[in-house]
Amino acid sequence: MAKIYAKANRVIVWLGEEAAGSDPALEDVRIAAERSTRRLGNKAGILILLQRPWFRRIW
């Protein structure tokens, strides 16, 4: 799977149903990826997002 992700131009994943704060958290992640020096304003939402099962998968 690492090779597949490494060669992909874009990866789309289903993280589950929307949860409180998930949209702003995803936006913060997108912005942080573009500007790595920006402070994240929605740390709690990002932590909740990263606790979803998809991020704990072992390939």
UniProtKB/TrEMBL annotation:
This is Heterokaryon incompatibility domain-containing protein. Residues 1-59 form the Heterokaryon incompatibility domain. It comes from Pseudoneurospora amorphoporcata. InterPro entries: HET. It comes from the Eukaryota. It holds the Pfam family HET.
